[in-house]
Amino acid sequence: QLQASGGGLVQAGGSLRLSCAASGRTFSSYAWGWFRQAPGEERTLVARVLSGGIPDYADSVKGRSTISRDNATNTVYLRMSSLKPEDTAVYYCKLVENLGYATLDYWGQGTLVTVSS
Fold first, then answer.
1. Rounded mean pLDDT of 75-84?
2. pLDDT at 26 (0 to 100)
3. Please, are residues 27 and 48 in contact by the beta-carbon 8 Å criterion?
4. Average pLDDT over residues 15-42
5. Per-residue confidence band for 51, with pLDDT thresholds at 50, 70 and 90
6. 35, 44 in Cβ contact below 8 A?
């Protein structure tokens, strides 16, 4: 089970930090990702961090976002700054477990971020 938190209403130019914690079992090799979905749009990747800790960002948030993971607590964070109204969306965390022969995807429930202009 993944539990996301940290969303809310933020003014443009502000910042926030999203968190997502996995519980219920132990994961071995896995990657984390944050996705977002605005009304009427598809869900898209915002940032991801692989098991080795290498981050990757969508161009739209590059330079103003940081994804990090805490393997001890099975938690992923996304810090976003210089927020823009177009960052408004429901943000979802995703854990991709690498089993070697297959991968398993786990999704969080989503947390709403609203950026006011």
1. 97
2. 77
3. no
4. 92
5. confident
6. yes
Instruction: Dig out the tokens for 30 from the structure.
Output: 């896995």
- SS3 of the chain: the string is CEEEECCEEEECCCCEEEEEEECCCCCCCEEEEEEEECCCCCCEEEEEECCCCCEEECCCCCCCEEEEEECCCCEEEEEECCCCHHHCEEEEEEEEEECCCCEEEEECCCEEEEEEC
* Cβ–Cβ under 8 Å, residues 23 and 80: no
**Strand partners of residue 112:** 90
**15, 8 in Cβ contact below 8 A?**
no
How many residues in the chain? 117
Closest CA to 76 of 108, 100, 104: 108
* Residue whose token pair is 């995703």: 94
Is a pLDDT exceeding 80 seen at residue 46? Answer: yes
